[in-house]
Amino acid sequence: MLSARFRNGSMTKMFTGVAIGQLIQAGQVNPAAPVGSYLPDHPNRDVATKISIHHLLTHSGGTGDILPEYYERREQLRTIADYLALFGEREPRFEPGTRYEYSHYGFILLGAVIEAVSNPICGQITTFGHNGGGPGMSGDLSFWPNSGHIVAVLANKDWIATEVSGFICCHLPGTPT
User: Cα–Cα–Cα angle for 16, 21, 142, nearest 5°?
Assistant: First the structure.
């Protein structure tokens, strides 16, 4: 049995971007809309009203980094709510759209948007299929609710893709075992 848990950090940003893109394509997310349209309880009004989904995707929202605080508290940071509680009250570092600055927190916010829009049933994995890969292959993205984790599964279109995705999601930090 696999018992190791890994934090995969920035590797999931591309999957988060694809999932947001699919929600935009489906008409469920507006890239010009402010974060507060999807996260009305965000603790910082400037973040909620001035920073758009587009700003988050392009690292131009001013949401900043989560280091070094992340390293100091990483054992307590398991869910999106944990990150919002720790970093949510911070002011934007600059006026949104005026410059580029790599932002871990911006993608955490995008994970929260995915969670809010997809409204997964507690404990249920939401899958964003996009039929990627070669013939007979799928390229689904699975989102585990309350954890912010997105897993890409490239597997044959059969039961094994679902099993692999479910197994990986169930063994990520902050997910029920």
Answer: 45
pLDDT tens sequence across 24-52: 988 999 999 999 999 999 999 999 999 99
Residue 39 in tokens: 């996260």
Give, as one character, the DSSP assignment of residue 52: B
Reported confidence tier of residue 122, pLDDT bands at 50, 70, 90 = very low
* 79 SS3 class: coil
Burial label, 4 (beta-carbon count in 10 A; 0-12, 13-18, 19+): exposed
Q: Are strands 126-128 and 137-144 parallel, antiparallel or unpaired?
A: antiparallel
Strands of 149-156's sheet, edge to edge? 126-128, 137-144, 149-156
